[in-house]
Amino acid sequence: MISKPLIIGITGASGVIYGAELLRVVHELAVPIHLILSEAAVRNFAIETDYSVEEVRKMAEVVYDNKDMGAAVSSGSFRTRGMIIAPCTVKTLSAIANSFTYNLMVRAADVTLKERRPLVLMVRETPLHKGHLDLMRTAADIGAVILPPIPAFYHMPKTIMDIVHQSIGKALDHVGIEHSLFRRWTGATGKDGNPAVDEGSASYKERT
Ligand SMILES: Cc1cc2nc3c(=O)[nH]c(=O)nc-3n(C[C@H](O)[C@H](O)[C@H](O)COP(=O)(O)O)c2cc1C
Fold first, then answer.
1. What is the number of the ligand 1 atom nearest to the C-alpha of 103?
2. What percent of the chain has pLDDT over 70?
3. How far is the CA of 92 from the centre of ligand 1 (A)?
4. pTM assigned to the model
5. What CATH number was assigned to the domain covering residues 6-181?
6. Tell me, what DSSP letter sits at residue 185?
């Protein structure tokens, strides 16, 4: 049986590395990816990372034009396992919260919600004014998972990638993709007063 694809959206918030690493990990896990990149995301790859857009696109089975409103993912009859937008701008959050489906990214997110499939929004902005918070509340009310890339420290991150992997691992938990990207908390009962963590370690290969 062919595995249902995961839709990955990448928008132009700071932190497009979250989207790139998500693509890389899901690709390694052999889950088909249908990718939508916003224009602003493409610009931010050049500003913030050493990824070329070609490298990013190559990790997906299908790459859509964000203006292609006739694409498969614009219809609920095309079955997917859900959608993760990493990172998600306030602009795209706003469009999703208001079902203002002006591009394929927002249409695919809206379809994901109406079909009651998981939609994870890794919203990135700081500080947040009340309008941003209201948009997040509205999106959560209609079914989105609001998962800002906020680092945790109980897994003792040593590198930026440790921090990135913890957040994308949390996003993958919501779309039912098994991974061992970070060590999970198992209660503060470890020896020597140290926190107990499971021994899971990342199953992905480091980027070379
Ligand atoms: C370097 C850079 C960083 C940005 N960071 C953010 C951010 O963290 N959050 C945000 O909402 N917008 C951010 N923006 C602004 C968005 O890119 C801009 O609003 C864009 O129109 C969003 O379009 P999109 O949602 O279609 O990607 C940033 C822009 C640049 C150039």
1. 26
2. 89
3. 9
4. 0.93
5. 3.40.50.1950
6. B
